[in-house]
Amino acid sequence: MVDDSAVLRRLITTVLSGDPEIEVVGTACDGIEAIQRVAELRPDVVTLDVEMPRLDGIGAVEVIHREHPRLPVIMFSTLTERGAAATLQALSNGASDYVAKPTGAGNIGESMAAVRDELVPRIKALVNARRIASSAAPKEVRRRERRLIEVPPQVLVVACSTGGPDALSKVLAGLPPSFPLPVLVAQHMPPVFTAQFAQRLDRVCPLDVREAAEGDRVEVGRALVAPGDFHLRLSRVAGQVRAGLDQGEKESFCRPAADPLFRSAAQVYGPAVLALVLTGMGQDSLLGARAISEAGGQVVVQDEATSVVWGMPGSVATAGLADEVLPLEAIAPRLATLALGPRTTVAR
After folding, report:
1. Which range is least confidently modeled, 98-102, 171-175, 273-277?
2. Can you give the pLDDT at residue 136?
3. Which of 48-52, 188-192, 312-316, 340-344 shows the lowest mean pLDDT across its residues?
4. Which of 25-29, 136-140, 151-155, 308-312 has the lowest mean pLDDT?
5. Number of Cα atoms under 13 Å in the Cβ half of residue 60
6. Would you tell me the crossing angle of helices 328-338 and 164-173 to the nearest 10 degrees?
7. Which distant-in-sequence residues (6+ apart) come within 8 Å of 190 by Cβ?
8. Is 161 a catalytic residue?
9. What is the pLDDT of residue 100?
10. CA–CA separation, 38 and 73 (whole Å)
């Protein structure tokens, strides 16, 4: 557990030590000490502050990821523009996920509860994913029956969470400039982060990527990212599909969630939906993928081997709802092919 604040080190250590499945094997107060302690202690997971003296979290995670590429690292970040930018850079440098630091606005009990609710599930999911990946027993995928696709896709909807920023960046960067579908993205992120995330994607992607706003037109050449704390849904107004934002109930403990986006896409486009489920913790997108499948649309998911956590794509694949299960590097070219029009697809 790495943080330059002694108060936070004590708080987080107390919270984590209260879980019988977790042992805090060591702490560090800056990035240089963190690198040394990781080499000495060989932990299963590291929590890493973003802003620290001597060497910050951005630099530390780059070294840790290079020397221990399979070691999960969770960043602690402030919910500010500066904190968001630094955290997204850390994710690009190899961090697996992030959680928000306690704000200090509430009492110590509230801060401890917030850390416990956000951090403990991530630690367990990332460590379990690492153990599964190193075993010879991947989850069984139920094969979807071969079927003839008769309707060309008119939209691509994407779901992602843990590990999603890096995976999505690679997928969108791999699409051709002439990609013929509008793209809508639900990535589990808080406010501030999604605007920064969209800006980063826009710099690497041939599409025009922006954070979605109420009433935005859904059109070819554009990718809209659901803003933090808002669900993104689609509707057809006077013949034009537009984005709508709302703060309805969280789904799968998330807002934005993928399920509302996927369901609304199925309602608006029917069988002309192409859905992609990337790496992520939990089962968000499962219900939405079922709605798309029942409407006759196509569903592609990332495979277990290349996912940071195979929760979201795995839930869709093991439910028999995936037309194709692909490694990350194969997804962009396959989407470009599927977007061209009807063809026979086979679950893989």
Report:
1. 98-102
2. 52
3. 340-344
4. 136-140
5. 33
6. 50
7. 79, 100, 228, 229
8. yes
9. 86
10. 11
CB of 52 closer than 8 Å to CB of 3: yes
Query: Could you report the per-residue pLDDT of 105-120, keeping only the tens digit for each?
Result: 567 788 888 888 989 9
DSSP letter (8 states) at residue 251: B
E-assigned strand segments in the chain: 46-49, 73-77, 97-100, 147-148, 155-160, 183-187, 208-211, 222-225, 231-237, 240-246, 273-277, 298-302, 324-326, 344-345
Give the active site residue among 56, 97, 259, 284: 284
Q: How many CB atoms lie within 10 A of CB 333?
A: 13
Q: Please, which pLDDT band fits residue 95 given cuts at 50, 70 and 90? A: very high
Query: Alpha-carbon distance 182 to 293, whole Å?
Result: 19
Residues 235-247 have pLDDT tens digits of 999 999 999 999 9
Q: Where are the alpha helices (DSSP H) in 55-107?
A: 57-67, 81-92
**Could you tell me the pTM of the whole model?**
0.90
Active site residue 235: no
The one catalytic residue in 169, 188, 216, 323 is 188
Q: If phi over 0 gives left and psi between -120 and 50 gives alpha, with beta otherwise, what is residue 54?
A: left
CB neighbourhood size of 204 (10 A): 13
Which member of 77, 96, 111, 161 is catalytic?
161
Q: How far apart are CA 122 and CA 281, in angstroms?
A: 8
What the chain holds in terms of domains, given with CATH numbers, is 6-134 (3.40.50.2300), 147-345 (3.40.50.180)
Whether 188 is catalytic: yes
